[in-house]
Amino acid sequence: xxxxxxxxxxxLAAGAGFLEGKGPENPRLACEMLLSRLLGCKRxxxxxxxxxxxxxxxxxxxxRGVKRLAAGEPVQYILGETEFMGHGFKVDRRALIPRPxxxxxxxxxxxxxxxxxxxASDGSxxxxxxxxxxxxxxxxxxxxARPAARCVAFDISAEALDLARxxxxxxxxxxxxxxxxxxxxxxLEPGMVSAVTxxxxxxPTAEYEKLPPHIREHEPRAALDGGDDGLAVIRDVIADxxxxxxxxGFLFLETGTGQGAAVRSLLEKSGFEQIEIRPDLAxxxxxxxxRMSVVT
Length: 296
Description:
The chain contains 12 helices and 9 strands. It is an alpha/beta fold. It has a 7-stranded mixed beta sheet with strand order 5-4-3-6-7-9-8, sandwiched between helices. Strands 1-2 form a two-stranded antiparallel ribbon.
């Protein structure tokens, strides 16, 4: 990016132009996110100070950020944070960047009336298990929304758990979220859990190899690659959840496009009822919900 642009308007235009065809899918948005951080303002407030002249330290920082974007690094990793369910979460290469689809998963849990009915309306007596917690966005968001609920967050990556703990600490819920390095079957007795949530790797290996470089070269493969059919990890977690859940307990899964029928079949075989495959905003299979039947 040239040293000539100095105003907010000029810097945004130059940065977006430099990135066209090189880095992020939306170069203008990425530049706005970088510059709003540097100026300590909301992104939309940039338009109220279009003619503001940037000092040299901020210009230099902006140039460094744009070069990192051009190299394919996600803007969330450059900033070190992202927003999820209205809350800020620290993110880095230790865990997957939360997507809007995962907000749909979290909302599905919060909107499950049968889970929160009666005395459990505030979370009293509810035990939630979040499998593959990553940065902890689901577990922490649920803990914030239901202060009386208990939550156990699982991940096979010790590094991801450290990141999740940091986010729980930052949001003041560290004492209400337990963290387990391992799988669902490692930390809970059978029939204990009210609900299991899981955003697991679901991209088939062949498709993973075709993902854009800014995803494939920066985000952890273990959080994306779901094996030959994309269901290797999901298959195991469904089986584990059938044991961990109490009678009438819920399983909430995020799935890949076109996997709805296969996931429904897996849920049915493991004894789940009231199964729903819900679409995302683009109409693709995305959220699978099942309830543990009385007879398994």
